[in-house]
Amino acid sequence: MSRSRFWLTVVVALVLSAGNLHAQVQEDWWHIYPGPGDNDNEARGIGVDAGGNCYVAGGSTGAADWDFLVGKYNPGGGVAWEIPVNGPGDSSDYAMAMVADDAGNCYVSGWTTAKGVFGSGLLICKTTPSGTVEWARPHNVNQMAPREMTFDPAGNIIISALGYSSGYHSVVMKVDPQTGDSLWATFYRWTGATGGNAQSVACGSDGSVYIAGTATKSTGNLDDILVVKFSADGDTLWGRAYDGPLHRYDEGIDIAVDNAGNAYVTGKIKDSTGNSDLVILKYDPNGSLLWDWTCGVGSSSIHNTAGIALDPAGNVCVGAHSSGWATGFDFSFYKLSADGDSLWVSPSGRNGYEEAYAMALDAAGNMYITGHGAGTTDYDCLTMKFNGATGAKVWEMTRDAGGYDRATRICVEAEDHVYVAGYGNPPGEPETNLDIVIIAYEPVSAAVFEPVTNDPPRDFALHQNSPNPFNAATTIRFDLETGGDAELSIYNLLGQTVLSHRETGLAPGSYAFEWDGVDDRGGAVGSGVYLYQLRTPAGKLARKMVLMK
Fold first, then answer.
1. Are the beta carbons of 159 and 177 closer than 8 angstroms?
2. pTM over the 0.90 mark
3. Are 299 and 324 in contact (CB under 8 A)?
4. Rounded CA separation 247/477 (Å)
5. Cα–chain-centroid distance for residue 233?
6. Distance CA 353, CA 345 (A)
7. Is 366 helix (H, G, I), strand (E, B) or coil?
8. Residue 84, SS3?
9. In this structure, is the dihedral angle defined by the CA atoms of residues 179, 180, 181 and 184, taken in order, positive or negative?
10. Taking the chain, what is the end-to-end CA distance rounded to the nearest angstrom?
11. 3-class DSSP state of 349
12. Distance (Å, rounded) from C-alpha 191 to C-alpha 239?
């Protein structure tokens, strides 16, 4: 069933005023990593573990060549570690994708010159939560450029890639997370195509593997969207090539799979004006096309699809940026039912030019999208949240890292707990000198630093909490001699952040903070010894307290 040319059902009106678009979240912290050579550095993956630690991987130009870079950042924004990973033989290594598990193990893949093959080979590394490189394994897969990584239900690593074997192919590879050994690698090229590129990968509940990408043809810009399903053992079960209505250039960008094994693919196809229209496809577990849906937004051009995801009800959510709206190039979200019916389309309504590069959902189905948007003098990292039920924009946040800035990766830990990563061009440096930028957003906490007195204290001090030990709640007092920003963090004895609260622009004076034994995510913590630390421009102070239930 085709739903071509049906461009929207509802355009959701933006009813929030500009003044309250930021009220629900605040920037928790942000960090710039210039890399060991302070040259060209880009974020290629982001994740968060069960303790709220953020992990970012990317490529970093060292003194002589490229290396992988992996960093760990504590929930309060502190740098736990940042390490380069160099392949065997001091090779040039370029990170392309990353996944992190709940325990904080990170797996990064990219190309390497370590094997000495024609072009480049594949390098995969594993870093532990403590920041050591457990293994770094090169694989002699010719000219293999990873595109995306995921875990299968058993915890194995699945990689989609572009690879070379008598021409370019789509490649999918399964890797043992304990050793880095390849369990299998399958090359695929659509019949009649001259090449292929597996852009995205997803897994079914039975361990089957699906990829979406492009089947390259030899005549002009006539490529098709490619969708392939493999068994858990790497056998090709079926492959499909979707040729748009005008038989022009079509590109598959992202894929999602539901629990029944249906595959949902998003990408873009050329329309009669030469512009790129958004397309969404659904295939059943046996490879039959159930429906296709396209959206050209009138005469506009969809320049990029940021991603696709399924909400808890099984609805299809796609993030993109597009022109043709009254406010110009906008972030936009598209929500369809599992049957392909348009539920709503919502542009951001923000004035200025925007480009979207990544999207994600939270557990409630709210949608988050990140990229860059026009700032005062250049482009800034831009992140937005849309209500999953209505499509209304809930908030937007920007970060000016000093120059031309772009967010390219996003991870949502919980509602409004959002991490984004990308790159920025610092002021005064050449445009090719890019630094990795990481930003964390959190809900605006109901807890506040309550002024006790406005009389400037004589010292910078952190007092013992009272009562101590305590049962239900305790009060922490501190003195700011000079005022400024202040962050109070509470840690357990494992060093994990339990709660962190930050306020800016405090006047000199004494302040009180009441803690009710609840962590950042609203959960009650257990009895035990906790550390609390005050961090300001004047320095850091810490004390212990005891919770007894």
1. no
2. no
3. yes
4. 69
5. 29
6. 19
7. coil
8. strand
9. positive
10. 61
11. coil
12. 9
pLDDT level of residue 427 (50, 70, 90 thresholds): low
- Three-state secondary-structure class, residue 229: strand
Q: Which tokens hold the place of 483?
A: 């005022």
The amino acid at residue 420 is: V
Bond preceding residue 129 cis, omega within 30 of 0: no
The rounded distance, in Å, linking the Cα atoms of 67 and 486 is 36
Q: Is the separation of the CB atoms in 124 and 139 below 8 Å?
A: yes
Tens of pLDDT along 155-178?
Answer: 999 999 887 777 788 999 999 999
Mean pLDDT of 377-385: 91
Query: Which pair of structure tokens corresponds to residue 469?
Result: 């030990």
What value, to the nearest 5°, has the Cα angle with vertex 97 and ends 94 and 101?
130
The tens digit of pLDDT for each residue in 488-524 reads 999 999 888 888 888 888 899 999 999 999 887 677 8
Between CA 239 and CA 189 the distance in angstroms is: 9
Where would I find the H helices in 351-489? none
- Yes or no: say if 175 and 201 are a contact pair by the CB < 8 Å rule: no
SS3 430: coil
213, 224 Cβ separation under 8 angstroms: no
> Strand pairing partners for 57?
45, 70
Which of helix, strand or coil describes residue 19? helix
Cis peptide before 75 (omega within 30 of 0): no
d(C-alpha 363, C-alpha 521), whole Å:
13
Alpha-carbon distances, residue 282 vs 8, 119, 287, 317, 339 (angstroms):
18, 36, 9, 13, 9
Beta bridge mates, 375 = none
CA distance 182 to 458: 63
Q: Which amino acid, 192?
A: G
Condensed to tens digits (0 to 9), the pLDDT of residues 24-37 reads 788 888 998 887 76
